[in-house]
Design brief:
Distance between the termini: 96 Å
Radius of gyration: 35 Å
Low-confidence stretches: 62-69, 470-474
Order of helices and strands: HEEHHEHHEEEEEEHEHEEEHHHHHEHHH
Strand content: 15-25%
Shape: flat
Number of helices: 15
Mean pLDDT: 80
Largest sheet: 3 strands, antiparallel
Strand order of the largest sheet: 5-4-9
């Protein structure tokens, strides 16, 4: 290329750059004009301003993809679950909350009794045979322990997946599916029906067709998905402690700091100053008390002494020591800790003592005996688990019919009654009178009354007639 051609090309490049700069300045000028006009009219609003608070940006629920699921992606849900699993493993207050919910929801365990459907009389032999099938299932699947784990998983992970199998003997077997195993395969990643690993009907978000488990298709009939803290049309549940996870972390840190301050304040019992002693005599005393010594780079010697609780320090008279933690009253932060735990307890609709096991500030009669909010909440959760368990037991009976362990008529003729342990502690004498009236009026059977008190009706009849007690039910 000649020198003239090179100069011409440089001139064209410079001209193009100048034109680009002019257009950019013109665009900025127009944008500034629009902004000034909006500010004068008072109509300028930052659409993201409501979602900024405390250095965090919150996701608005009216954005596409969030209104129906609560989380925009499976990765966000996974991260939330990891945080709450860590709390359930390491945070003492979260652990206490989980354990108390299990104790009040599951308690001593639910009781299941096979009955006939209304208007469908069933031979007594069939009822006994079906009850034996249920008892066999409860025993072999460790159902009481599994019930507790269901509550823990639903609270900790926001959901619990139960998958049903048939053993070689034709018996129903139930196992858990880990939540991270439920995810859409790569081939279904762009399919909104298969989002979050839950494949739903195109026109009905509540009708689940199947689940993608470790990339494999599993029919919806073989899985029971127990979700928590979300609407029915939401595909996956949200962990119980997710809204208050930061408060649980604050409570743990505050308790740790309070303990550290107390350790500092109580480790040194006395500072003893020696006014009349010479410095050399005091150093000789420190040398004799030292557990070891260290020579510093400047040639001086530093004596190392282990300070056990109650240590007395010997110092030279002109030396002044100041302990910053001396003026701190760690006990006053107990009020702050209680306020934080009340915020967590309000999320659970539970009194504060159910997070700390400290009943000194709780009125037991107002929280459990008088059927306060906690009792109502536990009864509601029990009713939910009661119906979900009933569906499992009906599935067990249906499997027994398919494998020939029960006759065909059992499918339409049999039902399952589920009794739950009481939550609140009432006046037992008054409650017994109420039960007596209900039985006398025919509103409740003696069998139901026995189940309410955790008794096996058949065993009690055998004992009252003088027969052998036999085996007890689960």
């Amino acid at each position: 290329m000649s020198q003239a051609d090179s100069a011409s090309l440089d001139a064209q490049v410079q001209q193009a750059q100048a034109e680009q700069k002019r257009l950019l300045l013109e665009a900025l000028k127009r944008q500034n004009q629009l902004l000034r006009h909006a500010l004068r009219e008072g109509g300028y609003v930052d659409p993201d301003e409501p979602y900024r608070e405390g250095g965090e940006t919150w996701e608005p629920l009216d954005r596409p993809g969030l209104a129906a699921v609560g989380f925009a992606t499976l990765e966000q849900l996974t991260q939330a679950r990891r945080q709450c699993r860590l709390l359930a493993l390491t945070n003492e207050f979260a652990i206490n909350g989980h354990e108390n919910r299990i104790s009040y929801i599951v308690g001593t365990g639910f009781r299941y009794r096979v009955t006939s459907r209304p208007g469908r009389p069933v031979p007594a032999e069939l009822l006994v045979q079906a009850q034996a099938v249920l008892e066999d299932f409860l025993r072999e699947n460790h159902w009481h322990q599994r019930q507790q784990e269901i509550v823990r998983r639903r609270d900790r992970d926001g959901e619990a997946f139960l998958r049903f199998f048939l053993s070689a003997e034709g018996k129903t077997v139930v196992r858990f599916i880990e939540p991270w195993e439920v995810a859409p395969p790569q081939s279904e990643a762009a399919n909104p029906q298969a989002s979050f690993g839950v494949h739903t009907d195109r026109h009905d978000a509540e009708r689940v067709l199947g689940y993608w488990v470790q990339g494999q298709w599993v029919e919806a009939a073989d899985v029971q998905h127990r979700k928590g803290n979300v609407d029915l049309n939401v595909k996956r549940g949200v962990p119980l402690f997710y809204p208050v996870r930061k408060n649980l972390q604050r409570a743990e840190k505050l308790l740790r700091n309070m303990a550290a301050v107390s350790d500092i304040q109580t480790a040194i019992a006395l500072i003893r100053k020696h006014q009349a002693s010479s410095r050399s005599a005091l150093e000789q005393l420190q040398k004799s008390l030292a557990a070891g010594q260290q020579t510093l780079p400047d040639g001086t010697t530093r004596y190392v002494q282990v300070f056990q609780p109650g240590t007395i320090l010997d110092v030279y008279g002109e030396t002044e020591y100041d302990f910053p933690a001396r003026g701190l009253d760690a006990a006053r932060y107990v009020t702050v800790l209680q306020a934080i735990l009340r915020a967590v307890a309000s999320r659970l609709v539970m009194p504060e003592f159910m997070l700390t096991s400290d009943a000194s500030n709780a009125n037991y009669s107002s929280t459990l005996v008088a059927e306060g909010p906690a009792v109502k909440m536990f009864q509601r959760l029990q009713a939910q688990q009661q119906e979900e368990d009933r569906q499992v037991m009906l599935r067990v009976l249906a499997d027994a019919v398919r494998t020939g362990r029960l006759p065909e008529e059992a499918t339409e003729a049999l039902d399952v009654q589920v009794e739950v342990p009481p939550v609140g502690v009432r006046d037992q004498l008054e409650e017994a009178r109420v039960h007596q009236i209900l039985v006398r009026l025919g509103a409740m059977s003696p069998t139901t009354l026995a189940l309410k008190h955790g008794l096996d009706p058949e065993r009690e009849r055998r004992l009252m007639t003088g027969g052998p007690a036999g085996e007890t039910g689960s």
